[in-house]
Sequence to fold (302 residues):
Amino acid sequence: MSLLLDEIALAAARLAEAGVESPRAEAELIAAHVHGVRRTELHTVPDSAFDARFWEGVGRRAAREPLQHITGLAYFRYLELEVGPGVFVPRPETEVMTGWAIDRLREMDVAEPLVVDLGTGSGAIALAIAQEVPRARVHAVEADPIARTWTERNIGRVAAAAPYTRGRVTLHGTDFTGTARSGEPGAADLGALDGKADLVISNPPYIPVGASVPPEVGEYDPPAALWSGADGLDAIRGVERVARRLLRPGGVVAVEHGAPQGAAVYWVFCEEAGWRDTRNHKDLARRDRFVTATWPGERAEG
Ligand SMILES: C[S@@+](CC[C@H](N)C(=O)[O-])C[C@H]1O[C@@H](n2cnc3c(N)ncnc32)[C@H](O)[C@@H]1O
Fold:
């Protein structure tokens, strides 16, 4: 056994005791981060190079700090994004909804599809679309100024790796419900997009106030990214109001929600409210995860 493997085994036991779900994998990822190698290259770290900072990272993870805050990185589809205090860590569930949106955009007979991502956080959804649909123009909306510092950093990071995204992602420091932030620059600038968006997408806050969440979420994700009224649907109702304003006839909306909220969100976007082709979609664990709908008009997409 190498020293590092011994240390990883001990760390995995400590993380398991602390209630971390995948303790061995996470211990290996912390070791890989500290030693600047991939997880599959850990065998190349000689005993003499063992770095005691490994145990500092393990201590933080045992205190239930998210792995992504320790490494400073989150992976989302084909992106490596910077994350840390003050920004929501993107989740794998959201990759499925983003993939749905990317497929729809690729099918659209529109030269430069216009996309609005409401509540962009790290920029995960907006930047994945910009990377994977190079023709798209993406407007990313985020009310929280601390979260926006991370969005800006990631816009620059993605532009450095994929220069064709440069200038195609516009960040708006706006409350998409239009109820606050009147003093902020760009507060009213979404109005210029009214009736023009081909696709509106959002992973808004959707946890009912008072619900219990794991420490990684409750203590590290920003409150504005989590809580949304007594039934968790306040922000989703806000997305519905904004989407009907922003979409051109035939444009589509996709909104993420919590697993038990599928039926309730379907009704927010129901026919009686003017929407067509409303559908529930599941995530990789086969739980209800997002709703899509079309804003009707002559240019309806197939
Ligand atoms: C659940 S996080 C999602 C972040 C990112 N889209 C993702 O999927 O990883 C929701 C984000 O919406 C932002 N947000 C919440 N309410 C908002 C509002 N009314 N206007 C603009 N941004 C809002 C939060 O600050 C947070 O960054």
Observations:
- Residues 145-161 form the longest helix (17 residues).
- The first strand starts at residue 73 and ends at 76.
